[in-house]
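We give this protein:

***
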Amino acid sequence: MEKPCSLLVHFDKGSAAMANEIKADLEGGDGPAKADAMRRAISLLLNGETLPQLFITIVRYVLPSEDHTVQKLLLLYLEIIDRRDPAGRALPEMILICQNLRNNLQSPNEYIRGVTLRFLCRLSEPEVLEPLVPSVLANLEHRHQFIRRHAVSAVSAIYRLPHGDQLIPDAPEFVERMLASEQDASARRNAFLMLCACAQERAVSYLLSNADRVAEWPDLLQMAVLDLIRKVCRSQNRANKGRYITIITSLLSAPSTAVVYECAGALVSLSSAPTAVRAAANTYCQLLSSQSDNNVKLILLDRLNELRTLHRDVMVGVVMDVLRALASPNLDVKRKVLDLVLDLLTPRNVEEVVLYLKKEVVKTQAGDLEKGGEYRQMLVQTIHACAVEYPEVAGSVVHLLMDFLGDTNVAAAVDVVLFVREIIETNPKLRVSMIQRLIDTFYQIRASRVCSCALWILGEYSLSLSEVESAIATIKQCLGDLPFYTVSDEGETTDSTKPAQPVVNSVTVSSRRPVVLADGTYATQSAATETISTPSIAPGSLSSTLNLRSLILSGDFFLAAVVACTLSKLVLRLEEVQPSKVESNKACTGALLIMTSILQLGQSSYLPHPIDNDSYDRIVLCVRLLCNTGDDVRKIWLQSCRQSFAKMLAEKQFRETEEMKAKAQISHAQPDDLIDFYHLKSRKGMSQLELEDEVHDDLKAATGGFTKDADDANKLNRILQLTGFSDPVYAEAFVTVHHYDIVLDVTVINRTKETLQNMCLELATMGDLKLVDRPQNYTLAPESSKQIRANIKVSSTETGVIFGNIVYETSNVMERSVVVLNDIHIDIMDYISPATCADVTFRNMWAEFEWENKVAVNTVIQDEKEFLNHIIKSTNMKCLTPPSALDGECGFLAANLYAKSVFGEDALVNISIEKQLDGKLSGYIRIRSKTQGIALSLGDKITLKQKGGS
């Protein structure tokens, strides 16, 4: 067993020869030699050696030494040796040490006295301590503060021993008298802590009698005061609550930031009044702006988020103060600030918040910010969320954000175009200006996904004649001249691209390759793109306006199919708004020419990969549509698509509203709860803060705010039996899973008629679990029980196993007996909780995460939706696929699930199943995550649970 000690040094284990060398050095060496020998002896003891032969030598030759280093090492030696016999009594040899300790406590050297007093804090043998008590008490009045502060600690340690009140019965009175006259900060703190632990009434009396001077006390003592106030109020003793609040309020202006932080936390735990919460929130915000450490900022943001969950109405007033923390260069801090601000939006502050975020977006254009693209993406997502909840603010930011459609950060550009797509549907007043802005900036877009979404917007929301004509002209300009490539029999490369608008400079880039024609002759195939500098661009810079052409020539035929669909919609709408048939036919002919050129390019050998079947079928459909259009088909292309998008947005809003309602806490008060009518109470001497607190407490009591969430029935379900009923020792454990640790409360019952000595609970772990401390040895009387607590740290979301045994000794059996315990399996479900994310975010994470676990569907359930609900319930995940997408009976089902662990890990699940002819379900469940542990553990859980229906 490892032994507690203040010195932990690795040292190679020695031999008998080394022990003899140490003994010789102790007997004949001088001060430095003895010190070196003592160091070697202590290192051997810490590494498992016993060295019983050294004790008498040390008593004879080391105790008389006056060397300070030797005396300090002697105290370390006495701390780590076994000072008790197997029966639990102090060794007789320890009496030899008492005289030396007494001499040290009366030594004229302050250092010797101090280290000896500090050593006494770790002694627990009454036989050794009893003769030293008078000397310890005499040191309480020593002239040197170093000795007084350690003397108080020694008195406190002795008094808190099982029979310490018999050794120093008047310890609280001695310490209280010393505290009244003490001037040293550390000594006052130690004395006050002793009263808090051993005589709380005296500590409270001292605090209340000096309440006016607490703000002048040193910060060490102020921290102890705050701990006392928390402890007193936690014991439901709220008689002096008003005076405690006054003390805390006076400390809010203390110079120590640690004291100020603790004051804010104590104030919130003590009072729920809006004034108190507002003071705590302002304090956190001031610390947030004054502290430079990112970890401190994250902790403060967590505290503010906790206040937000309980007192949102009060926190709304500090939202602008929270936004100032965006000045931090750390992205994690920025992300937490933006998430917190989103939860504090109201119609009153949304305009200020959006204006501030707009300024931050402008700052990201400077280019000197580290990770400016990621920060800009977060800002765009936040502004998007603000505009969705409060559409009236969209007009002030949408035009600014559209400048970033061509952002080099593709994720940020995608967020912008999705924001534009949603706002243009929900805000009809902005459609005209947004369409014109999109047409003007379309040539800047370089990402295929952004181009696809922007083309869809142009096809759906270009309604007037001028908008339709501008959209068609823009698309043609970005495609360039047709055809996309030319074939020359002479082997020459020809330029097929002509400027579509006045230009300043142009550079043509051509590529060619030999091909074999149908008749067996050789020819050269070429493609050309033109780089054009338009007047809107700074002089001397070259920017390609042929973005669609370059993307299609790179083989992106999905984008080519989107171009064909957009042109079809624009031509159909042009036929409705254009009175001239000639112009309509001309636009239709141009669109058909573009589509056939794309098909020709896709079927040629110029590109390494031909056009895919889906894109080919889509473009051919567009060609047939323009050649022969019926009214029903026209209605589908021009109206149904937009109606489906509007329905999707409405359903998304409905789902978010339902989730918010589900999160709302439903509290119920018991019918026999006490009702305290504060109007009938005397208000004499009560401050405004106390009056507010009375009102708030009554409101919480009426709405069930004080109702405890703990359910005793659920606790009984978490009890695990560790041993059998026929074992001499019965043990069971209650497992409590916190975020980062597991607490095992083990109840051990001695079922025999004998006393169990040196009984120890030995535990070991498998997986990413770590035992924090080893439980100590106990002596268990016949037919008695003992509660043993063990703490286990968790470092990742992974299924782990805790196993071990109980070892004990009896007087009849010389050997140690062992009872093996049942294994405790830690479930991954205790660490993950349902979460939600955008579809784009889900797809990005799915493509990024490298760990995938593929589980085949093997279940007796024959209904697809029932199986999906069973997996959701078994894995504690959130289904991101909307209910409307799961409606109907088609024999197929595909859904995405998402959850987040307490360590911030993401768990992604995709379910794809099909109903076979025999009624059974087949398919796969794919799990992806950034870490291997969560993917494997979640897969094992699904494999175990998917067969049953419960």
Observations:
- The chain has a mean pLDDT of 79.
- The CA atoms of residues 481 and 498 lie 6 Å apart.
- The first strand starts at residue 485 and ends at 488.
